[in-house]
């Protein structure tokens, strides 16, 4: 299993394996990969600890219950798998501002975090708008 210890997998191999896992998931469980609902539910969990009455009256959470389901575990598995993979390959490191970003936009962590946060909002908006 030498390819497991490689610094980076071929994107073609990784994509093919992800596609294979998706096909198996649809065949066995009838479920497609999905993550955006998990982030909404996680936000619901957090808000529920602060304003339980408000969450109970929100139309979205009346229709879509706040729960830990297969999608939430899928998201946790993505993070755990990425961590394990980087530890096995020896590429794990904490970098506040990646070199490519620093070369193009400077070394400001606040600027980097702000753009990442805004990009996440845009991506989540798009995913939710598309029904994901």
Could you walk me through the main structural features you see in this protein, from its secondary elements to its overall organization?
By secondary structure, the protein is an all-alpha fold. The chain has 2 domains: 91 residues, no CATH class; 39 residues. The chain contains 7 helices and no strands.
Describe how the helices and strands are arranged.
Blueprint (H helix, E strand, L loop, with lengths): L10 H19 L6 H15 L1 H6 L1 H5 L6 H20 L9 H7 L3 H21 L3
Index terms:
7 helices, mainly alpha, about 130 residues, single chain
The number of distinct β-strands equals: 0
The ordered H/E elements are HHHHHHH
- Spans with pLDDT under 50 lasting ≥5 residues? none
Bin the strand percentage. under 5%
Number of helical regions: 7
Q: What level of helicity do the residues show?
A: over 70%
Label the overall shape: globular
Can you summarize the main beta sheet?
Answer: none
Q: Name the structural class.
A: mainly alpha
Mean pLDDT over the full residue set = 86
State the end-to-end CA separation. 35 Å
The domain count comes to 2
From the alpha-carbon coordinates, what is the Rg to the nearest angstrom? 18 Å
